[in-house]
Amino acid sequence: MTSRSALGLAALLAGAGVTHFLRPRPYDAIIPSRLPGPPRAWTYVSGLAELACAAAVAAPRTRRAGALAAAGLFAGVFPANVKMAYDWRHRALPYRAVAYGRLPLQVPLVLWGLSVARDSGRA
């Protein structure tokens, strides 16, 4: 079961990372303006970080470090989700539901990364 959970986490990270390159515009829009440089650079950096975490989680030798990095990444992108919720506060209900739903979703994602890290230490 540990391996299945780790591979699921790796797949989620890889899929999200790829979308940063295939469809960067939605990610650009949620980059907090306080970050220096162009939003597109941050979109690509975060996409690369997700792909790096995915690769690390997928490999048993680096799984623990990759899963801890993924948990940190999930926590680190929370300000972008807050910005999205704020920016979308006047949109139609389905859009607001998506934006607001992303906020509590970060908690199980962080916990998933920590769980994979913990379980990989036992293997």
From TrEMBL:
Alphabetical list of PANTHER family matching this protein: DOXX FAMILY MEMBRANE PROTEIN, MEMBRANE PROTEIN-RELATED
One GO CC term, this protein: membrane
Subcellular location: Membrane
InterPro entries noted in UniProt: DoxX
Family annotation (Pfam families): DoxX_2
Official protein name in the record: Membrane protein
UniProt main location, coarse: membrane
Organism: Actinoallomurus iriomotensis
Keywords: Membrane, Transmembrane, Transmembrane helix
Membrane disposition: Multi-pass membrane protein
